[in-house]
């Protein structure tokens, strides 16, 4: 019965990923962390969303050891573990192969901040981390994927609390947030922002980034000290 | 029990916005006005459409004072108030972040009138108001957003009774009409017109605007003194 | 009770148009003809598909006189009448503002025959009739729309029995067939063919038209004297 | 009662094709083979998916002779027979006119391997076989279509066990796998990969193919001797 609540939260967030149309088949996974116990719950590898049950969720610690569960955890588990270990305020992580997000990743380009929909959630372009060097791919791949993400943020001086999403070049998006639900929310927002930026650039290849005053205004309406959006 | 009918009209128009796929999460809002009482009903800020109840709708006057309601009104309330105050024949206003409409706004381009679908509803390109000057953004932002819209119409000599929609540069669309339902209708039509113009220009970048005779014919079939469309 | 069967066929084909996602609101209409009685059934003007009832369908003769019905017929009725009068083997006609079909019409371009999906249905590019001359628009517009279509076919030497669809420049598609159901089928096929040709040209602007041997083979598998497709 | 299980497997895979949105009307077919008996089950020609019943499925041998069934088999039956005869480890075959897959076929271009979604399933670009020579089209067309596919694989040195999909130039995709269900799965994956590559190239026409180390890593995570994806 241990971890029942954590498994349920992880289970529901995984179903939400599917219900939002962000994944086909088993192309994605969500995890939810319990900081007090030093473990996280994650989707089992290769299990269809339709067949997934709360008790199938696997509990893993930050050293990638299975704490509870009969199934093999997601093949991306080590990436989640690295992010939880390094970014201490994250409560949940989502990974998808959502179409427009992946398209930008395959284009190896940051998603430029083009409008207020983007600025309502973050003040930066969505970073696209470069594909890894060959020796890192051939080594501990999923662990190194986590390092690739945190290195990208370190090099660019980005704060994971303010930029809750990244594209892995040629792969796809990882998003996070206070909870698994919030991580899924950021996957959905990212997909929409990716689609809007794609279309805007198709209409007008010279369309500029959003001006700084609008970036600040929209972000602070929702996130700043004097935020006045929501209840 | 006061304002019950007004709240109900506003509530249903907000649900319609969601049912038509024009919004995700809380990215939009609809209001409905009662001219006799000098108030309008508007969606509360940041409340999910799935959770929204008629009694959650907030009643506000044209000076942005809450007349009735326990929740904070939409963060865009001042824009609605300004438009109601200045454009006296409007009955309802809708704001969305619908994908193709936003894409044109992010491209900072008017949507050219390319076909009869567009001319069935308006005879002009859909205007895209320029992003605001920084001091207006940093000031009373949502109020100034309203001014930006009415200034755009004044400068271009447009009549809000004939052009029931506008794009805010880098932000997204506002639409209006005799009622909240009609405002939502115009949001849906705008999204379709935005998509058609996008595709037409992708197919043929040199495709011309619709000829004047067809613009007049189609608009007057539906809206002119001798309209013969509908019952 | 007269015309009950004809109205039912027309009603169901109109609902199918909506169910297939080819129209929003009231942006389309289907008619079904009874050659023996010299009348056709057509959707009433501006009535929502959700509210439409079989008894609302209007019966009109080829001189555009209402034979039975309490509602005003579709504003495009005269176009239907002209086509029925001139093309004697047509059993039904459909008109939509479906997105990709309209996009090609707004681009004022024929849809090139690019693949076997197209050739399974017709051996020619989908013709895009030029927008009408101003005096024809300002005159008996819907009647002249019909003439514009038949003139286009005459000038190009096309046979309406082999090319069951046309685009009106800057407006949208008309399709037809042995029955109202078949006319709707052709609207759906046209929309798919329009989308495939759009995408193929975006991927490879130099992509050639389908070679003649494949055009003939695929058309004749389904339509020739020795057709062997279907039961 | 013979072949009941085989017909059921074929029937369900055909319905899945439809449920996944990969076909409209009758534009596709799936077959399932029974190697021990030297026959395969295939969809009857031109029957709507909504009307299809398990007992409608036709049983055919590798010489295209009907073994059981009252309906005419798919017009593409000879293509299936050729592939089963030549590629001895295939358990099922699917053919669709899915939109993005067809668009690349109409563009007459291989789908470049641009990301890990692609590499999770195959290590090569999706091959686009050239349209056939005229005498092959005018001859035993569907049989020759099979030859066109196996010749394409032979010329390029591709192994059908590692590349479970092909585009026929100007026509559309054929996919296969251990079972009919797996063939349909590959049709769905192909459509997604086709869409992602299309969008990536629209965003960045110079976007490179996926680097070799990532191709190998992702393919071997799922398919190699040391695969660790799934349960």
TrEMBL record, chains A, B, C, D:
Q: Which NCBIfam families match?
A: PRK08193.1 (NF006047)
EC number(s) stated in the UniProt entry for this protein: 5.1.3.4
Q: What class of enzyme is it?
A: isomerase
InterPro entries the UniProt entry points to:
Aldolase_class_II_sugar_metab (IPR050197), Aldolase_II/adducin_N (IPR001303), Aldolase_II/adducin_N_sf (IPR036409)
**Where does the signal sequence lie?**
none
Question: What is this protein's record name?
Answer: L-ribulose-5-phosphate 4-epimerase
As cofactor, the record names: Zn(2+)
Q: Which domain of life is it from?
A: Bacteria
Q: Which family does it belong to?
A: Belongs to the aldolase class II family. AraD/FucA subfamily.
Against Gene3D superfamilies, the record matches this protein to:
Class II aldolase/adducin N-terminal domain
Q: Which organism is it from?
A: Neolewinella litorea
List keywords of the entry alphabetically: Carbohydrate metabolism, Isomerase, Metal-binding, Zinc
């Amino acid at each position: 019965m241990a971890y029942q609540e954590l498994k349920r939260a992880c289970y529901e967030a995984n179903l939400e990923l599917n219900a939002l149309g962000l994944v086909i088949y088993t192309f994605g996974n969500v995890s939810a962390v319990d900081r007090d116990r030093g473990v996280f719950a994650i989707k089992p590898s290769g299990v269809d969303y339709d067949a997934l049950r709360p008790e199938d969720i696997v509990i893993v610690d930050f050293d990638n050891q299975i704490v509870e569960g009969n199934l093999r955890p997601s093949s991306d588990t080590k990436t989640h573990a690295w992010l939880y270990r390094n970014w201490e305020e994250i409560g949940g992580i989502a990974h998808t192969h959502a179409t427009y997000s992946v398209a930008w990743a395959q284009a190896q380009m940051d998603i430029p901040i083009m409008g207020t929909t983007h600025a309502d959630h973050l003040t930066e372009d969505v970073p696209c981390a470069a594909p890894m060097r060959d020796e890192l791919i051939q080594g501990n791949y999923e662990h190194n994927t986590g390092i690739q993400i945190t290195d990208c943020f370190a090099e660019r001086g980005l704060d994971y609390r303010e930029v809750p999403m990244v594209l892995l070049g040629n792969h796809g998006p990882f998003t996070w947030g206070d909870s698994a639900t919030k991580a899924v929310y950021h996957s959905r927002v990212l997909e929409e922002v990716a689609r809007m930026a794609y279309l805007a650039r198709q209409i007008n290849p010279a369309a500029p980034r959003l001006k700084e005053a609008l970036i600040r205004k929209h972000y602070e309406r929702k996130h700043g000290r004097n935020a006045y959006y929501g209840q």
